[in-house]
């Protein structure tokens, strides 16, 4: 009888193929270091990788047959519209590029808190080209991100207000400007509805905004005038138009898109030709006669294609930006007046590095400028918010995501389970709780017995 071979002798040794082959042929994901250090002929693995939000999109020949990459152009409820820009080999790129897919987000991305925003470059899997549906499996690197409204990869912001109906409120205008400054994204301030005011009002606001440190543009969507300077800024860029309700954001976007002729060779021409509800002309509302403020017409964020490969983002109007990314230390940097005073006093600076410019000893920032009361009001609001966050979460907070090391040292992100919901109670703790309950019952019996003894003694 032949001896039974050992496990090591019975199993053949696993030999990895040479690295420069298409990564879709590997039976498991490769380490991130190998992916980054591979030669130019090696491609990123198309499946979910750790830190994938910092990786660029893979080349087309690294995609699986049922995958594609594209741009998230609209979001509504649990569905997203993705404009396809790359497909795997064997598919007709010219037929699919520029078409839109109705997608849902993979459950794992939600569990590990990897949020998919309008403007993200994404990997779409399980693509059904007949019904034009798919599932977003991964999110690629972001250049920029805006919180209000939630849009990714933004190149420019347009802060839009109107000179009348509704009239600009300095406090609200300051809040929008601070939010735009905090993003670090180039922005331009635009005033609409110049046909409703006289030249003196326009000159007043031009001089007033210049003292704040801004050079606004003035235009009229109704009379279709003053668009040339703004059009030059928007060429080939992804632009987000923000502002309160009723100032004419949707009207401005419709006017800018009507002026530009999109050629039939442009991949986005088929979207405009379909005139779908996602990429067609935006619905325009009216201003309330009772309150003089705008009504909410746009209810979701969408990127609207324009000529030259750029996009305009139409967003819901809101009157109170959250300022969630602004801290009490960074607030001063969002005011051009404070930046100007600090620059004029160089090389001297404030006496303390943590100076928040409240008239402290040695502070070089004076309080003789118009928006100083708004600065103080926002500073108090941010201080209260930070104190509440500190009391609620403390200085250290356990993350909702943990990274588990898998094959060949690859770290995979997975959701961290809540201990109270999913952690099994140990036997020791269960036994101890049973003993505690027995002791409580015995104590109750002893108390009842003593009570009965006392009652009998009294009767005697």
UniProtKB/TrEMBL annotation:
<dbReference type="InterPro" id="IPR012340">
    <property type="entry name" value="NA-bd_OB-fold"/>
</dbReference>
<dbReference type="InterPro" id="IPR010914">
    <property type="entry name" value="RsgA_GTPase_dom"/>
</dbReference>
<dbReference type="GO" id="GO:0003924">
    <property type="term" value="F:GTPase activity"/>
</dbReference>
<dbReference type="InterPro" id="IPR004881">
    <property type="entry name" value="Ribosome_biogen_GTPase_RsgA"/>
</dbReference>
<feature type="domain" description="EngC GTPase">
    <location>
        <begin position="152"/>
        <end position="319"/>
    </location>
</feature>
<dbReference type="Pfam" id="PF03193">
    <property type="entry name" value="RsgA_GTPase"/>
</dbReference>
<dbReference type="InterPro" id="IPR027417">
    <property type="entry name" value="P-loop_NTPase"/>
</dbReference>
<protein>
    <recommendedName>
        <fullName>EngC GTPase domain-containing protein</fullName>
    </recommendedName>
</protein>
<dbReference type="InterPro" id="IPR030378">
    <property type="entry name" value="G_CP_dom"/>
</dbReference>
<keyword id="KW-0547">Nucleotide-binding</keyword>
<keyword id="KW-0342">GTP-binding</keyword>
<feature type="region of interest" description="Disordered">
    <location>
        <begin position="44"/>
        <end position="66"/>
    </location>
</feature>
<dbReference type="GO" id="GO:0005525">
    <property type="term" value="F:GTP binding"/>
</dbReference>
<feature type="domain" description="CP-type G">
    <location>
        <begin position="143"/>
        <end position="321"/>
    </location>
</feature>
């Amino acid at each position: 009888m032949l001896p039974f071979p050992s496990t090591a002798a019975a199993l053949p040794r696993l030999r990895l193929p040479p690295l420069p082959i298409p990564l879709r042929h590997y039976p498991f994901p490769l380490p991130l270091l190998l992916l980054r250090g591979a030669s130019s002929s090696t491609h990123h693995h198309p499946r979910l990788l750790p830190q994938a939000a910092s990786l660029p999109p893979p080349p087309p020949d690294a995609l699986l047959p049922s995958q594609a990459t594209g741009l998230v152009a609209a979001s509504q409820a649990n569905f997203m519209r993705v404009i396809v820009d790359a497909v795997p080999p064997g598919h007709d790129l010219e037929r699919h590029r520029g078409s839109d897919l109705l997608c849902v987000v993979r459950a794992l991305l939600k569990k590990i808190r990897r949020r998919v925003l309008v403007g993200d470059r994404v990997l779409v899997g399980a693509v059904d080209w007949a019904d034009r549906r798919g599932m977003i499996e991964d999110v690629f690197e972001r250049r920029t991100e805006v919180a209000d409204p939630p849009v990714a990869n933004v190149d420019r912001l347009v802060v839009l207000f109107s000179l009348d109906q509704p009239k600009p409120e300095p406090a609200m205008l300051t809040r929008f400007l601070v939010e735009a400054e905090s993003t670090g994204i180039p922005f331009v301030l635009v005033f609409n509805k110049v046909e409703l005011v006289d030249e003196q009002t326009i000159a007043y606001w031009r001089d007033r905004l210049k003292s704040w440190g801004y050079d606004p543009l003035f235009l009229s969507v109704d009379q279709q005038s003053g668009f040339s300077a703004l059009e030059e800024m928007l060429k080939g860029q992804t632009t987000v138009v923000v502002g309160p309700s009723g100032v004419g954001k949707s009207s401005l976007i419709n006017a800018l898109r009507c002026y530009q002729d999109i050629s039939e060779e442009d991949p986005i021409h088929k979207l405009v030709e379909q005139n779908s509800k996602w990429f067609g002309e935006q619905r325009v509302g009216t201003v309330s006669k009772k309150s003089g403020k705008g009504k909410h017409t746009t209810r979701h964020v969408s990127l609207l294609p324009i000529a030259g490969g750029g996009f305009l983002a139409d967003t819901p109007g809101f009157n109170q930006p959250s300022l969630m990314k602004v801290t009490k230390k960074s607030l001063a940097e969002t005011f051009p007046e404070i930046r100007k005073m600090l620059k004029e006093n160089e090389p001297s600076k404030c006496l303390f590095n943590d100076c928040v410019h409240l008239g402290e000893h040695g502070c070089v920032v004076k309080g003789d400028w118009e928006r100083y009361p708004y600065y103080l009001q926002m500073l108090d609001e941010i201080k209260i918010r930070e104190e509440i966050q500190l009391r609620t979460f403390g200085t250290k907070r356990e993350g909702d995501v943990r990274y588990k090391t898998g094959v060949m040292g690859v770290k995979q992100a997975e959701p961290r389970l809540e201990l109270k919901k999913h952690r099994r109670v140990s036997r020791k703790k269960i036994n101890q709780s049973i003993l505690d309950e027995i002791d409580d019952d015995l104590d109750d019996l002893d108390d009842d017995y003593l009570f009965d003894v006392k009652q009998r003694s009294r009767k005697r």
